User: Fold these one by one.
Assistant:
Number 1:
Amino acid sequence: MERDEMPCDVLFVGAGPANLAGAIHLMDLIEAHNAAIGSGEADGEVLDEPMIVVLEKGSGVGQHQLSGAVLDPIALDELIPDWRGRGCPVERFVEREEMVLLTPESAVPAPWIPPELDNHGKPIISLGRFCRWLGEIAEEKGVNVLSGFTGQELLWDGEAVVGVRTGDKGIGKDGQPKDQFEPGMDLQTPITILGEGPRGHLTRKLIQRRGLDRDSEPMIYYVGVKEVLEMPAGSVEDGWVMHSVGYPLDVHTFGGSFAYSMGGDKVCIGLLVGLDAADPQMDAHHLLQLLKMHPHVRSKLGAGKVIKYGAKAVTIGGWASVPQLSTDGAMIVGDSASFLNPLRIKGIHLSMKSGMLAAEAAFEAMLRGEATAQALSSYPQKVQDSWIVSDMEPGRNMHANFKDHFVSGMVQTALQYAFGPGPQKRYSPDYTHIERKASYQPAPWTTQEVPYDGVYLVDKLTDVYNSGTQHEEQQPAHLKIVDTEVCATTCREEYGNPCTRFCPAQVYNMRESEQSGRLEMEIDFANCVHCKTCDIRDPYQIITWMPPEAGEGPEYDLM
């Protein structure tokens, strides 16, 4: 099959904060270099008309971005020092914070807020809007942003990455080309920077092929679910942020919740649930509705109407899960490389800084005219020499502390806060922690029914609509199950088909088959919000998330 080929100097895969910051920084470095050559201040050759490309699978920059985003601006200050005067889309600045321990009936305020969670004065942002703003700046500097293109396969020359093949368009359900079929193109480049977000499709392939996780702990994750509520005019306290732990999670489940005010009489609320939760019936969307039913939360948000919804996996392994960051022809940045501090529950600033450091390594490689593993090894060294390490190192055992019980986790974290993180604790992949349904006794409130009203308390399918997700249904499902017989038999018996609950978009459903008369798996892939939860938590590891046709998926705005 003939494919169009597009050569470029550096290719960034994914238009998130890491890659957009990297692309902007790279163009700044090239501009400064060329100016120094032109003025005679430096020797060398001008990098004339560099082809810097950012590939984005969403229909536009920011469409797939979601975060509980109270931003630490340290990296933004370095990248765009005058961001406050350049139209950076800040919703509000934090003015008042509260942290509470929720029990099923009460809320106990924390006597103090740990410094790691102190956000006073920091900007509250919508990550989607923030990335659109960064994308506009990147394009102004000459970066080519290609939205609506998935990175389907890495291109290889031996064991060196030499580019990316984008996904075909116009494939029918039967796997055959339709009349409007368009083959993907080959983006050929000596330097590929992967910033696909958590559980990146190409990143996983690179890590597996090159063994980049040999010396790191497994990547582990939360699933984050988030809603935006529209409140009565004048009822929202500007700059308010709340963090909570406890209810609706049981003592064996790691996670917490957040809420904060936004502009235009809107607030957001979100819940983070560890994907290593022992409960085989864990349902983050259901738990989010239970959270909103809590008296303390309802007193603040109960007059609101849900207008937006989204979900995504969140990397929480921290520093211990960071893989080898570079290899021949490629580097990994942002959430794809586990750059998030679980102690602070922040990662945007780390993602941006990692992208900027990768850009510096790419710039040096461009000047040398080579992109070998040795040439790109300056990137991980730059990370080691940066403030990323001092930010992430204290929280490297955060998740492991809570693997057994909430109370013991709090005690261990307090001790490590006082005396340092101590020896590195070992992790195992999230799916290995799920207990069989016969042996797990859930907390009584987690099975409580929700009195959905379609306004404040909304069911899962209504929230799928609120996510704006869309997929062409006459295409092969982008969620692949190796053997659906496992779903109908072994998984149903041992775990009760957990994917029908842990999926925050109701993609997986057990329905009676007309042919067999038994319950069998049906995949409603059009509901998918690209969170990757199924790929991570499936206890048999027989579900694989693949990119669908480009431009599809959720359409996040305020998220």
Number 2:
Amino acid sequence: MSAPKASVVVLTLNAGPGFGELLGRLAAQRTDFGYELLVVDSGSTDGTTELARRQGAAVHPLPQEAFDHGTARNLGASLAGGEYVAFVVQDALPVDDGWLAAMVENLDRDAAVAGVYGRQVPHPGSSPLARALVNDWPTASLERREQFAGGRYHDLPRTARRPLATFDNVSSCVRRCVWESLPFERTPFGEDLRWGKRAVEAGHKLVYEPRSAVFHSHERGALYDLRRHYADGLLLLDLFGLAPTPDPARLLLNALRTGAHLYLRLRREKDAPSSPRSLLLAARYALCSQAGAYLAVRRHRRMGEESGISARLHQFLGEGV
């Protein structure tokens, strides 16, 4: 049997009742090449691995204590037989049967392309807030993008480096030979953006392909928003030296801007909440997101001289993202 052209890797932990639909949609991809399905599982107890095997996937265990997003994806890529390795998270669903082919097409067409990432669409039935947030991200755009620095990445201003490095492993595909020289870093968060930055620094090209789309959205609360933007803030400081919310005054200004922007988006959604409810939701998200970003700056400034309280706060904010 010839080797598959592409390998699809799914990371799982108690994937839940929707996992069967994901497996079905992955199996139904329309391609003119062969592909395989691999599952890297971190200790599921709900029948996830048994279902994956019944659907023809190769299942590879990873101890839960050894899991981080970079390590798990590196394991999947190391076991892959394909020239290209696609990643999709367990709670995403390909929108159609062209999800995989659209990414592979970009890699086939241009040898300079190291990785492709796709569009994210809110799940049908998601709340107006979830829809508004997903549709506000760069991965909601309908326009294809090529990200290439031409060897001048570090000559660019810091604010220009960030968008060029954008990469998202919710739904992505990488060239395996590039991954071999640029494996994902061992990190609990942001392995995709870290990889994207290193790929562009090395002279490779990244592509955002909106024809490759998945349903992916969450119904999150205030605590998650705080934690997520804390993690994002630390990542932006580490990779790019960016601090969009450096002080309390900017926190307030950014919260007002974010809240106003989100409120207007919410009011445009179908079945939008009442005006007072929309205002409350927008204000909650704005305050939590900007507080998280500001706390990240405070943490970064006090590295090496933190108190016990600061360390416990960091541990608390770093959980659940």
